[in-house]
Amino acid sequence: MDRLTQKIQAGVDAAGARFASPLRSKRLTVVLGRWLGLAFTVCFATGLYSHFLQQPLPWMLFLPRPVWLYQLTQGVHVATGTAAIPLLLFKLWSVYAQLLGWPPIRSVLHALERATIAMLVAASLVELTTGLINTFDWYPWPFPFRTVHYWLAWVIVSSLALHIAVKLPIIREHWSRKPAAVGSGPEPQAQLETGAETVTLPAGAPEHAVSRRALLATVGITSAVAVGTTAGQSFRWLSAVNLFAPRQQDTGPAGVPVNRTAAQAGVSGTALAPGWTVTLTYQGRQRSLTLAQLRAMPQSTGRLPVACVDGWSQDAVWRGVKIVDLMTLMGAPANSDALVHSLEQAGAYGRSLLPAAYSQDPLTLLALELNGAPLDLDHGYPARIMAPGRPGVLQTKWVNRIQVLG
Ligand SMILES: Nc1nc2c(c(=O)[nH]1)N[C@H]1C(S)=C(S)[C@@H](COP(=O)(O)O)O[C@H]1N2
Ligand SMILES: [Mo]
């Protein structure tokens, strides 16, 4: 039995030596871990913001200003998620030799540590892959994306916190760069960890500090290119190099992309019906307004972004009736919540809540026009909600009923 173990050990060591690269070092792993940790943290925080905007807990209060806040946080969310993909792959590359550690489990603690890492890696890979696919507005899975994305994020941050706690001594040791020991053979950092043992690389290995810097530059450039060639769907100054993002700014009717068309939502007929009205309700009272009546009310103009959770956004000039004017018309206090209903009744897009902070904001409109022309059918004709600082998914199109609550 002992001989067998020794044989396996020898085999594993040989394989480990084959994988050995002087570039793989704890210092490299720590530097990559730092970048990845930063990307994950920012991605997690912006993700929470987006999640709770869409599904607030009862005590949560969100504010509509600045108007570009959600556009920024969601743009950053998708950009940091994109950057994390190459970072994660390089980081896995920097440590995967450790998978070969023998025996695979040395103690209960070691087993727990490996289980944590397995969970962290698996959850991160699924999270980043499905997130990336989602930016293409493609939902090829049977589960509700946001719920799974949200809970996986918690799995990731908790296993990440454990992982950091366990690795703290190594992180601390390699946090700052050590002066290279000239002419004294390989740095200890260049040793390959294969578990209990370390395989020391042959003397005369290339100058690691320099090649490590070259590798880190490569990783940095890879991430920067991935972000730089996609973030133009959200950040105008990058739109000239927006080569790979699923969306282009300034495309679509009135120069604004469309997320879901009227045909896809199944409302082409009802939205174009001549008898369309929007019905306002408040405390048992009810009032229906035609498009002509809405147009006869005071109109208000505002520049607001549509900022989709998928990571694209676009500024545009919207014109229509202030929601607060509709509240007044119904004799409701300005600071009332409102439930907005669409002609599209089914699914997550069928209605949205306008909390008081939004409904009383003078920039929150029942919009009738976009960029100087009546709304295109696909942008929500005859009327849609446009409010500052809200995720696109809450900017309900093809509105036919506004229920003032309270
Ligand atoms: N009724 C309804 N409203 C909707 C949608 C929808 O599918 N149905 N899509 C939402 C999403 S996800 C976004 S990003 C914005 C996009 O608005 P746009 O298509 O006018 O650009 O509309 C929102 N309003
Ligand atoms: Mo969206």
UniProtKB/TrEMBL annotation:
SUPFAM superfamilies: Oxidoreductase molybdopterin-binding domain (SSF56524), Transmembrane di-heme cytochromes (SSF81342)
The keyword Signal belongs to this UniProt entry's keyword annotation: no
Pfam families: Oxidored_molyb
Domain of life: Bacteria
Entries under Gene3D superfamilies matching the protein: Oxidoreductase, molybdopterin-binding domain
Listed transmembrane segments: 31-52, 72-94, 115-136, 148-168
Coiled coil location: none
Domain Oxidoreductase molybdopterin-binding: 276-404
GO cellular component terms, semicolon-separated: membrane
Gene Ontology molecular function: oxidoreductase activity
GO biological process: respiratory electron transport chain
CDD domains assigned to the protein according to its UniProt record, in alphabetical order: SO_family_Moco (cd00321)
Alphabetized UniProt keyword annotations: Membrane, Transmembrane, Transmembrane helix
Name the UniProt record assigns to this protein: Molybdopterin-binding protein
Lineage: Bacteria, Bacillati, Actinomycetota, Actinomycetes, Micrococcales
